Amino acid sequence: MEHVVVLGIDKGLEADARLERLVAEHQTKLARYLRRFVSDRDLALDLTQDVFLAAHRTLRADPARPLTGGWLYKTATNHAISYLRKRKRRGDEQPLEEAGSAFRLDERSAQALDLQAALASLAPEQLACVMLTAYAGYSSGEAALLLGLSAPAVRQRVCRAMRTLRAALGTSGA
Amino acid sequence: MNFARHERFEALAAAHALGEATPAEREEFAAHARLCPRCAEDAEGGAGIVALLGAALSEERWQPQVDGALQARLAAQHTRRSERTFTALGFGVVASIVLNVAFVGGFAGRALDALRVTPPAERYADATRIVLERRAPRPARIAAAPRRSAARAQTLALRPLAPKARPAPHAAHPPAPAAQAPAADVFAGIALRPASRAAGLVALALNCAELRPGDEPAPEGCPVTPEFSAP
């Protein structure tokens, strides 16, 4: 009985320690990544906390499970897609000037604002493929594994998303 | 060129833009891009978008910190879970008490009543029924006790017991059962079983105590007399 209790405490402590390491390593990149998805700083922070809470639950259930940055990005992408779908279903899509007011403080260049507006015009599935490959730095094969797709499907979505982005940004080439 | 084949070149254009196309894929795409300006534009424009996103990433100045808020949420979650556990435990204890009381006091009582077996009448057919009968006192005794009212002057008519024939302790041959005197006491003309004897004597003693308050002399026939107290 004592052995079980000690193991339970060890599991909890190990989960907390691993979560601390994950938070310290990934919190900034993950919050920025999610802000590109939802165009809102506070919302991105909330979603980031949700991702780490999900990681904590997973680690408490199975401390031996290896949680990498890929797992965090996958969970973050799923959370962001769910949020975007809910927002679209509710029909309360906010304009970028109101929802993403933080960008005006942090990124004063008009190009960055345009880029954010163009990203907001993408479908969530295309946005996920673009963000994982062109922003987070994963290859199309890794992104395919994270999203549960094939690599050619991810590349096709990236190609079509980039066409949409080019049209939104008004650029024909580089 | 069919549509499926062109989809493949879309994927190659994206791979070219992301910079992850293999040399064979690059050659294949270059051969196609010479004939398809749209795919060539996808590859060039895609590379520009990738560069723009990379620049946006490098120009980020926002340094979010979520660990403090995360610790607070974890602590709140832990507290909420503990409260929920204690609440559930309390409800469980109260519910079990209520259910136990309801079951034992209500349903189980009725069920046991329904299950209770009425004993058959013939099982107790040979049981002895004790009947205490009152008789009118003798006139001479009533005169000796003038304070007693006529109703209370009734005494129990007791018949002295016949002495039992007990076998001698060192008798060589015990007497035959048929020759023995009856073992049961006789009270008011009724033979008492040994189990009933004590109850009969207690009832008699209570009756005599009722009839004999204070320092009045014991009425004749009271079981405190030796012949009744030592059967």
Description:
The complex is a heterodimer of chains A (174) and B (231). In chain A, 80% of the residues lie in helices and 0% in strands. With 174 residues, chain A is mainly alpha-helical. Chain B has 231 residues and is mostly helical. Chain B has 3 domains: 3-58, no CATH class; 66-116; 134-164 and 179-229, no CATH class. In chain B, β3 and β4 form a beta hairpin. In chain B, α1 (3-18) crosses α2 and α1 packs parallel to α3 (37-58). The chains are: A mainly alpha (174), B mainly alpha (231). The interface between A and B is large, with 45 and 40 residues.
List keywords for this structure.
heterodimer, A: 174 residues, mainly alpha, Rna Polymerase Sigma Factor, Chain: A, Arc Repressor Mutant, subunit A, 2 domains, 9 helices, globular, B: 231 residues, rod-shaped, disordered C terminus
Give the helix/strand layout.
The complex is a heterodimer of chains A (174) and B (231).
Chain A lengths: L1 H37 L2 H21 L7 H22 L5 H4 L1 H6 L3 H11 L3 H12 L4 H8 L3 H19 L5
Helix pairs in contact in A: 1-2, 1-3, 2-3, 3-7, 6-9, 7-8, 7-9, 8-9
Chain B lengths: L2 H16 L4 H11 L3 H22 L8 H49 L18 E2 L3 H6 L10 E2 L28 E3 L2 E3 L1 H18 L14 H4 L2
Antiparallel strand pairs in B: 1-2, 3-4
Helix pairs in contact in B: 1-2, 1-3
Concise structural overview:
The complex is a heterodimer of chains A (174) and B (231). Chain A is mainly alpha-helical and 174 residues long.
| CATH class type of the largest domain in chain A | Mainly Alpha
**Residue-averaged pLDDT of chain A, rounded?**
81
Helix and strand pattern of chain A: HHHHHHHHH
Shape of chain B: rod-shaped
Structurally, how many domains make up the residues of chain B?
3
Total domains of chain A: 2
